[in-house]
């Protein structure tokens, strides 16, 4: 009896996904590398530990693992992105045959996926870069799955992926073919960029409520609790309020955690991708750089001594303003994310269906939210930038003044709210009929003779001005 599919890599995510597959009745082969004294008998131990895996077969020899699989072989890689994934693919491919399907369920860079898919296609192997979101819990109980790459390969594995995915509001699996090449990993990367900004926004709202309004973490949790029955409801709001309620030895757990945020690189990739397509992504960039600044703790402590400020509480600051500011900022964040995907999709010819992608993001993933449900129907009938949609216009009209008010208070209290500021500035920059870029054009022409166009002149004429008088 051969196994239906194989999982390579039994870290936390790989084990969770294997247990999910096992629970759904698949005959599995599990492989984990053997590293003397570090990783030994990992697959066999997982099989001994988890009930769902008791009928699985464990290997630490790659050849026997591949030979244990039914053909066409289906293998899911759950190893670290980067060199580890590349090395594993190089070891696996000589053991595989034409028609087999190889999926990468890690957070690979989409350009690596484009290249790998291209090479393996020429060898007759179907390669899929599968974005998988939902953390440990998602992998175990139902993640959101974003497969991209070989469509033929996808058709072979779709029933499996769909059976282990989370379900959307209509009971459909949160798994859909995103597009060819690196489309799946690109979508996951942008998901993470959006995730960074959503997390940063919540931490900024928390800091305004904590330090400008003067609420305790418990009270702030109550404010967030009130949002869970509104359009602001999301998985990240849920976990944030749970975090804020936790105490240990009579102290808030949040107050014992070092304020220095980590990252594994996908947010930086999203910002790099936005820049490479010339798409403004001020919020995602602000969120990423906020993490970097938080990491420079020695500088922050030094400057805090120099700029020591007297924060006075402003209890009049309404939570309705905060709610409106938060919602309008989230929309700008989503607009940025979808705009990056639209640009990549156009450039690579991926034809990403944003309604389908939104549906995939309605459950199982980290950015699942009430707002994402709206996007599923919105994108079904909209083929332009999100920010131009009438639904968004309404939220900007109702939320922007609140956002400016919050930013005013935050800056006079010297709080750090770069994402809220970026959202407001995005709206300013995106809505000015005569922004200050005319001065930039003049400067470019002054020192570099780069030329400029004139207002009202629809021709292609490039003008220069004799700026230097001597
Ligand atoms: C998910 C998450 C996940 C992400 C980690 C680490 O969708 O399940 O986005 O894939 O990679 O949470 O992210 P950072 O370490 O960069 O915060």
TrEMBL record:
Gene3D superfamilies: 6-Phosphogluconate Dehydrogenase, domain 3 (1.20.5.320), N-(1-d-carboxylethyl)-l-norvaline Dehydrogenase, domain 2 (1.10.1040.10), NAD(P)-binding Rossmann-like Domain (3.40.50.720)
Oligomeric and partner information: Homodimer.
Name of this chain's protein: 6-phosphogluconate dehydrogenase, decarboxylating
Catalytic activity: 6-phospho-D-gluconate + NADP(+) = D-ribulose 5-phosphate + CO2 + NADPH
Amino acids binding substrate: 107, 133-135, 191-192, 196, 264, 291, 444, 450
Enzyme nomenclature, EC number: 1.1.1.44
Pfam families: 6PGD (PF00393), NAD_binding_2 (PF03446)
PANTHER family referenced in this protein's UniProt entry, alphabetically: 6-PHOSPHOGLUCONATE DEHYDROGENASE
Alphabetically ordered keywords of this record: Gluconate utilization, NADP, Oxidoreductase, Pentose shunt
Protein function: Catalyzes the oxidative decarboxylation of 6-phosphogluconate to ribulose 5-phosphate and CO(2), with concomitant reduction of NADP to NADPH.
Organism per entry: Candidatus Opimibacter skivensis
Protein family according to the UniProt entry: Belongs to the 6-phosphogluconate dehydrogenase family.
Active site: 188, 195
6-phosphogluconate dehydrogenase C-terminal domain boundaries: 184-468
A GO MF label: NADP binding
Single GO biological process annotation from the record: D-gluconate metabolic process
This protein's pathway: Carbohydrate degradation; pentose phosphate pathway; D-ribulose 5-phosphate from D-glucose 6-phosphate (oxidative stage): step 3/3
